[in-house]
Amino acid sequence: MKRRMGSSSYKTHYTSRRRRSGGGGGAKWLAVLAVAGLIVYVALAMGLGNVIHDRFLAPEEPGEDELTDATPQPTQALSSEITETVAFPRIEVYALSAGSYPSRAEAQKNALLFAARGGAGYVEEGDEYQVLLSAYNSRKACETVAEKLGDEENIAAQVVALAADAVELKLTAQAQRIDGIRDAFAIWQQTTQMLSDLWQDVDSGVCSAQQAKKRVSDQREKLKETMDTAFSDALIQGQATALDGLYGVLQATLQGLDAIAVEEAENVLEVSSKIKYTEISSLTEYQSYVEALKAQMQEE
């Protein structure tokens, strides 16, 4: 009985120990699993949170193209409009007239004869029709040639002043636009002076016909470039008529230069005649423009 009880007691004790041992191990594993589960949960929660943040809450990062568009770029500030007065100075030259004629037909007939001899052959209409041969910066120089024609050619030449008064235009526009108008006029003045110097070089034999056409072509490009810059946009409000007239003067000079540049003749007299004609034509066009502009200003 005692041994059986002892055995039973032993077994019971052994069993109890196994149960206690087994129970303690289970709790430990449960703890481990709980901690692992917590870690996994936290990781998943953080990952899910990042996904939610990145996909729904975080501001969308722009692509490369969008980044370029969104980034403030330095822009060239448009200059504000200003009001300035553009002054065109008085222009005065002295033309050599070969005589006056009562009709245009008669004047034109004689103009062709003078042109064949190297004169401009420009017909100016007034009370009568005058045939102009050349233009000079000084009256004295023009008078000297007139006397020589009278003595050597028996031509009753006269001196005629071609003058345009100084005028001013008040323009309201961007500064670069106003400067463009000034530059265009300055190049036009430079062009008329170039023509005056050029025909004298041709007549004196310093410059050949081919060289003269090259100089004209180069000057034409300068004039056209400044014209394109000054008149590329719409005409300035309030001065559209005045600027349109100025553009007409410059355009007429440009056409005259074109006629010289494409001239195929190598005859220096023909080239010299066209240079003189273009110079006088440009000056008389400007003279008419200024007279019309002043009349318009008086009406206003």
Q: Your description of this structure?
A:
There is one protein chain. The chain is α+β, with helices and mostly antiparallel strands. It has helices spanning 2-57, 64-70, 104-116, 139-153, 175-203, 209-230, 240-261, 268-299; strands at residues 81-88, 91-101, 122-125, 129-136, 158-164, 167-174. The strands form two sheets. A four-stranded antiparallel sheet has the order 3-4-2-5. α5 runs antiparallel to α6 and α7 (240-261) packs antiparallel against α8. The longest helix has 56 residues, at 2-57. The radius of gyration is 48 Å and the shape is globular. Mean pLDDT is 80; it is low at 1-24 and 40-78.
SSE blueprint:
Elements: H1 2-57, H2 64-70, E1 81-88, E2 91-101, H3 104-116, E3 122-125, E4 129-136, H4 139-153, E5 158-164, E6 167-174, H5 175-203, H6 209-230, H7 240-261, H8 268-299
Antiparallel strand pairs: 1-6, 2-4, 2-5, 3-4
Can you tag this structure with a few keywords?
single chain, 300 residues, alpha+beta, 2 domains, four-stranded antiparallel sheet, two-stranded antiparallel sheet, 8 helices, 6 strands, 65% helix, 15% strand, globular, disordered N terminus
Unreliable stretches: 1-24, 40-78
Mean pLDDT: 80
Counting structural domains, the number is: 2
Helix and strand string, N-terminal first? HHEEHEEHEEHHHH
Order of the strands making up the biggest sheet: 3-4-2-5
What's the overall geometry? globular
Give the DSSP E fraction (strand runs of 2 or more residues).
15-25%
Query: What can be said about the biggest beta sheet?
Result: 4 strands, antiparallel
The strand count comes to: 6
**Structure classification:** alpha+beta
Helix percentage range: 55-70%
- End-to-end distance: 146 Å
The radius of gyration computed from the alpha-carbon positions, rounded to a whole number of angstroms, is 48 Å
Tally of DSSP helical segments: 8
